[in-house]
Amino acid sequence: MTELSDELLVAYVDGQLARKQTRAIDKVLEQDDVLDARVTALKHAHARLEAAFEAILAGEEAEISEVALPPREDGFWVPWRTFKIAAASVGIVAALALAALGYGWPLSLPGLGSASQIEMSVTPEPPARP
Amino acid sequence: MNPSGGEHSVQANDFHDSVRPGLVAMLPRLKRFADVLAGGREEGRGLLSRALQYMMAEQHLYQRGTALDVWAFTEVYRQWRHELSGHADPMAQAKVDDAHFGELFLLEDDGYRDEPVIAFLVGLPPQQRLTLLLVYGDGFEHEDAARILDVPPETIAARLVRMSAALTDRLSERPAAQAASIVETLYPEGHRASP
Fold it and tell me: Are the beta carbons of B79 and B57 closer than 8 angstroms?
């Protein structure tokens, strides 16, 4: 069995190695089932990490689009694409206008959290940092 | 009046006007970063709100040639460290609530949630969680992840090796790797006090 460190294998899996090194490891993996299984396990772990982070991002996108897009009322119809563009434009413009006027960022707008939480979390002045 | 100076000023304004729409476009990614850093949706919302407020007030600090996402992620991380530095026990303050952190992960259509991976992430120090997120979640190069977290690129590579090995062993039910024995502080390696 060939000895290759996890350091080298993770760099290989992440595509951080030079082409020559990658080819050399490709050859080793063809001959060594144990190392090949380790590389497969590393790739599997990375894929599950990526999926977990994707699951968080899906939640963030859903949360933000809920704020940007109000529920549609019965009896009033506009084309969906027009509605999306208009709603997004109004949301962004309103958010930036409020931010410019010192009312905080869109995430602190009503509907995304309770007023008391927002007051607790947003400082009146931009925090001074070194 | 210097006409070229006026033109330069207009260009600078245009340049900084591009910061706001750029930040709006990356809000979901920034929110995920803040949530993973702070350990929950509510905590992340407050952190991101304060960081964005700072960024909008100090957007002139954003320099041409710097990727906007690298700058924005860096500012969120700096905001977190700035706020922690005001606490008497920053390490305790940085600990996350398991339930809050678990709620970050949206259930998939079939109701599946990868509990072993979530349990692994919740047990990591914030900087290590963020390293995984920046590289495997956001696809940053090691150098950019290092810039955001204010550490050398070698530290990013070392963290990835330790955590990849530890997670792989855990998922494969092999004996635990030695990653957990390595202690990280809340501050960059260069700022550590000498033993």
Answer: no
Closest-CA residue of chain A to B58: A126
CB contact under 8 A, B104 and A59: yes
- Residue B163 makes CB contacts below 8 A (sequence gap 6+) with B124, B128, B131, B132, B179
On chain A, the residues whose CB falls within 8 A of the CB of B83 are: 127
One digit per residue, the tens of pLDDT, for chain B of length 195 reads 444 445 555 555 665 667 888 888 999 999 999 999 999 999 999 999 999 999 988 877 787 778 999 999 999 999 999 998 877 666 666 677 878 888 888 766 666 789 999 999 999 999 999 999 999 999 999 999 999 999 999 999 999 999 999 999 999 876 555 544 444 544 444 444 433
Q: Is residue B192 part of a domain?
A: no
In terms of CA atoms, which chain B residue is nearest residue A127? B54
Question: Residue B12 belongs to what domain range?
Answer: 3-182
- The C-alpha atoms of residue A35 and residue A25 are separated, in whole angstroms, by 10
Q: Assess if residue B194 is contained within a domain.
A: no
pTM for the structure as a whole: 0.70
In chain B, the number of structural domains is 1
